[in-house]
């Protein structure tokens, strides 16, 4: 699970072009939106695409994303349970 979290952090930085943020700057339980990483709704769409492309996970309901994208911890847990790739 730890390797998946590191991989996720790296992919998020790459996909969202977060040039000023390093993997070490992202804590597993920090919120990804709002006060944490400060992501917005456009970033959420990018994360949905990332789940589909990298892990074979399609979100039927975009509202699911709110719970899934709460933190690196919640994303990693969801991916570990639902990945097809």
TrEMBL record:
InterPro entries membership: ACP-like_sf (IPR036736), Cadherin_CS (IPR020894), PP-bd_ACP (IPR009081), Ppantetheine_attach_site (IPR006162)
Main location: membrane
Keywords of this entry: Membrane, Phosphopantetheine, Phosphoprotein
UniProt cross-references to PROSITE patterns, sorted A to Z: CADHERIN_1 (PS00232), CARRIER (PS50075), PHOSPHOPANTETHEINE (PS00012)
Gene Ontology terms describing biological process: cell adhesion
An example Gene Ontology CC term for this record: plasma membrane
Pfam families cross-referenced by the UniProt entry: PP-binding
Record-given protein name: Acyl carrier protein
Domain Carrier: 1-83
NCBIfam families: PRK09184.1 (NF006617)
Localisation per UniProt entry: Membrane
């Amino acid at each position: 699970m730890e390797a998946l979290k590191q991989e996720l952090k790296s992919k998020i930085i790459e996909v969202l072009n977060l040039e000023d943020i390093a993997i070490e700057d992202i804590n597993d339980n920090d919120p990804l939106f709002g006060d944490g990483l400060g992501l917005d709704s456009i970033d959420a769409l990018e994360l949905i695409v990332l789940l589909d492309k990298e892990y074979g996970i399609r979100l039927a309901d975009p509202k699911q994303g709110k719970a899934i994208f709460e933190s690196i911890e919640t994303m990693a847990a969801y991916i570990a349970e639902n990945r097809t790739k």
